[in-house]
Design goal:
Elements: E1 3-5, E2 11-13, H1 21-30, E3 33-34, E4 41-45, E5 53-56, H2 71-85, E6 90-95, E7 108-112, E8 115-122, H3 128-140, E9 146-150, E10 155-158, E11 161-163, H4 166-169, E12 181-187, E13 192-201, E14 206-215, H5 221-225, H6 235-247, H7 255-268, H8 293-305, E15 312-314, H9 315-328, H10 344-356, E16 360-364, E17 367-370, H11 380-394
Parallel strand pairs: 8-9, 9-12
Antiparallel strand pairs: 1-2, 3-4, 4-5, 6-7, 7-8, 10-11, 11-14, 12-13, 13-14, 15-17, 16-17
C-alpha cells in the first residue's frame, strides 16, 4: 500500500511525485508509521526495482491487506491515480482511501460531479464471491465501482478475437441494455488502456470484439467510459468464426454441445457443424447465456421447426422450453456482476430477429406465428453462402 499515518497522525502518500529516494530514506529514518485501516505498525520499503510502499511488519488480522501486490499492480495504480488527478472535471482524487462504513479500501476514489466513483485495478484472479461482495458493498453507498483489469491477463487469439474466462466476464459492463458489453483494462508497461467493446460471445470463452488502445495521457476519464459501440465492423470476423467452426470437428464436447449434437444425429443425421446460419445470430445480448450461441439458438430453431406452418405460439412457450434445458444442465446462464438482466431478454431478441428473416411474424407483443420453414442443408458450400448473407443483415 502507498499510504500510512506517521507519528503525528498525518497521512503520508509515498506515491506522490514530490518524493525522491533520498527524501523517502529521511522520512523512514525520522518516523514510524501505522496502517490507516488496522492501526498496526507498518514499515516503509524503498527499493531500486520495486516501487516504494508500506508493508505490515507482522502478520495481523488487517481486513484490508488483501492479495499480495505485484510491481505491475502498484505501477498501474499510481498511473491511474496521477492520470485522474490531472483532470479538471474530477475532484477529491484519493489513493487507497479507507471507507470505514463498508470496510473497503478502493485503489482510487474520486468525485465526478455528484457521483463518487471507486476504481479497483485488478491484476490477479481472486474468488468471484469476494469480487461480487466488494461491488455490492459499494452499491450500498450508491457508488458504481469501475473495475479495470490488468491487461496482461487478456488472451488475444486473432485480429478481432479474444478468450475471456468466467472471471473476465465479471468485469464486463454496459451503459445501455441494448448495447453489447465492454471491458476495460490497463497495462502499466505500455502506459495504455486496452478496451474491448462490442463483445459478442461465440462460445463460453471465445468472443469476437472490437478493441481500442489508448495511451493513458491521450484520453480523459469521460471519454474512456463513454465509448460508443460499433458492432458492424465485427461481422467479417464473425462470419469467419462460423466458417472455422464448420470446418473443425468438435474434439472436446461439453455437456451442452454433446446433448445438441446427439439430438441432431438422431433427428437429422447431421452433425452440430451443419446447423443452419439462423443458429449463429450475433445479438447484442448473447452474453446473457454462457452456452455457445449455436447451442441455445439451435434448440430454439428445433422448437420452431416442430411446429406446423401458421402455428401461433407465445414468447413464454419458448422461454419455458429453454428454461427446462437450463434446469437439465444442457444450457448454461452466464454469471455477470454489473448486468442485472434476465436471460429471457435475449430469447425475445432472437425471436424478433427470426421475424426479420421471415421465419416468424410477430402478431402481438409476445405472440408469434410460424411463417416459413427452416432450411437444413447437407452441402457445406451452401452453408457458407448462407452464413455470408448474415453480414448484409447486420452491416
Amino acid at each position: 500500500m502507498f499510504v500510512a499515518y506517521d507519528e503525528k497522525g498525518i497521512l503520508v502518500n509515498v506515491a506522490e511525485k514530490k518524493w525522491t529516494k533520498q527524501g523517502l530514506v529521511k522520512l523512514r529514518e525520522r518516523n514510524n508509521f501505522v496502517c490507516p485501516t488496522c492501526s498496526n505498525e507498518v514499515e516503509l520499503k524503498i527499493g531500486t526495482i520495486i516501487t516504494a510502499h508500506f508493508a505490515h511488519k507482522k502478520l495481523t488480522g488487517c481486513t484490508m491487506k488483501g492479495e499480495p501486490e505485484t510491481q505491475y499492480h502498484m505501477k498501474g495504480k499510481v498511473d491511474l491515480f496521477e492520470w485522474l488527478q490531472k483532470q479538471s472535471l474530477l475532484t477529491d482524487v484519493q489513493l487507497e482511501p479507507y471507507i470505514s462504513t463498508i470496510k473497503q479500501r478502493p485503489d482510487i476514489l474520486f468525485s465526478n460531479g455528484d457521483q463518487v466513483v471507486p476504481i479497483e485495478f485488478q491484476c490477479s484472479t481472486i474468488d468471484s464471491n469476494l469480487l461480487i461482495k466488494r461491488s455490492l458493498q459499494y452499491r450500498k453507498l450508491d457508488m458504481n465501482v469501475l473495475w479495470i483489469l490488468g491487461a496482461k491477463s487478456l488472451k488475444r487469439t486473432g485480429t478481432m478475437s479474444f478468450q475471456l474466462s468466467s472471471f473476465h466476464w465479471l468485469f464486463a459492463r454496459s451503459t445501455n441494455l441494448r448495447d453489447p458489453l465492454s471491458l476495460y483494462s490497463y497495462c502499466p508497461d505500455l502506459k495504455s488502456f486496452i478496451i474491448l467493446h462490442s463483445i459478442i460471445p461465440f462460445s463460453p470463452r471465445s468472443v469476437i470484439t472490437n478493441h481500442s488502445t489508448y495511451q493513458i495521457q491521450s484520453i480523459s476519464y469521460h471519454s474512456l467510459v463513454n465509448q460508443q459501440p460499433n458492432k458492424k465492423t465485427i461481422m467479417a470476423a464473425w462470419i469467419d468464426k462460423i466458417r472455422r467452426f464448420r470446418q473443425k470437428a468438435l474434439r472436446f464436447q461439453s455437456k451442452d454441445t454433446r446433448a445438441l449434437n446427439l439430438f441432431l444425429y438422431q433427428a437429422k443425421q447431421l452433425p452440430l457443424t451443419y446447423l443452419p446460419s439462423l443458429a449463429f445470430f450475433p445479438l447484442n445480448s448473447n452474453y446473457l447465456i454462457e452456452s455457445p450461441v449455436y447451442v441455445w439458438q439451435g434448440w430454439i430453431l428445433l422448437y420452431i421447426e416442430a411446429l406446423s406452418l401458421n402455428t401461433t405460439f407465445t414468447f413464454q412457450d419458448v422461454y419455458h422450453y429453454i428454461a427446462e434445458k437450463v434446469k437439465e444442465g444442457i444450457i448454461s446462464i452466464r454469471n455477470l456482476l454489473s448486468v442485472e438482466v434476465h436471460y429471457s431478454f435475449v430469447i425475445k431478441e432472437y425471436l424478433i430477429q427470426l421475424c426479420h428473416f421471415s421465419i416468424l411474424k410477430q402478431k402481438q407483443k409476445n405472440l408469434f406465428i410460424k411463417q416459413s420453414t427452416i432450411e437444413w442443408s447437407r452441402r457445406i458450400e451452401e452453408l457458407y453462402r448462407s452464413d455470408a448473407k448474415l453480414r448484409y443483415k447486420y452491416d
